[in-house]
Amino acid sequence: MLYVAANGSWGPRAEFVPGIAERLSGTLCALAEIDGSTFHRWHEAGNGRPSDPVVEPSVPALAEYIERKNTGPDLDVMGYTTSLWARNPGAAYVSIAIHAGSTSRYAVNSVSLVFRSREIDETAEVIGRAPQILRLLAQDWEIDAGQVYNKDQYRAVAERWDLANSAPRCGRAVFLSAGRAALAPEGLPAMYARTAHGGLVIDLTLGGTASPAIETILEANVRLRAAGALEQLPTPFDRATF
CA–CA separation, 240 vs 11, rounded Å? Predict the structure, then answer.
């Protein structure tokens, strides 16, 4: 069964509904350019059925949705959470979840895009473009660290280093913010691609043409950790990126 995720996180950064909606709208529009058959007709988070309301990927519509779903005090500290899903004919079920705007020194902000399917497998073209999607998420949300993985890859890395869910790690691809990228070793069996904010995507799939073995992923983690590129942000957090 298909389960592939591209996600990332960052530390405290004040943001409010208009800015979050603008970032999310940009992400959804860019995803549609990558694969319009998968990334369109986004539904509000609900029971995962077609009856869930559809949200247009415009800034006003997304802002209204975010405001409606986030109520209560201290949103400037706790941040705003929103999620959407899409499932179109011949495509995987895909969901995107955002937690942004938290200024808490003990809670991370995050973005996650997940593919799930019982019919479609990892040979699908859109899955091969997951490192490109990671780069898009990194640029749109200015994340600190991010990764692409399936369940087996995630489990192997987490168990090897006893990692918490929010800990930086390398999957089949990894994103490193500018400070982390400055420490990244050269010579990994991967494609290296810079991002607009000085970050770096290291893609062990070589642009979707290869399927790295778990041993290759573990060795990449060994080298990145030895270089200091996967250190966690200090807790309590005092900045958004490494």
Answer: 4
Cα(221)–Cα(238) distance, integer angstroms: 25
Indicate the pairing of strand 93-100 with strand 109-117: antiparallel
CA separation (Å) from 77 to 15, 60, 66, 108?
10, 23, 16, 11
Both tokens of residue 69? 């779903």
Backbone φ and ψ for 203, nearest 5 degrees, come out as: -110, 105
Question: Residue 140: which H helix or E strand, with range?
Answer: helix 130-141
Q: What is the pTM (predicted TM-score) of this model?
A: 0.97
Q: Say how far apart CA 9 and CA 56 lie, in whole Å.
A: 25
Instruction: Indicate the helix (H) or strand (E) that contains 59.
Output: helix 59-69
202-225 pLDDT, tens per residue? 999 999 999 999 999 999 999 999
Cα dist from 2 to 36, 116, 128, whole Å? 20, 5, 13
Q: Residue 72's pLDDT is what?
A: 87
Q: For 65-110, how does the pLDDT look when each residue is reduced to its tens digit (9 = 90+)?
A: 999 999 989 999 999 999 999 999 999 999 999 999 999 999 999 9
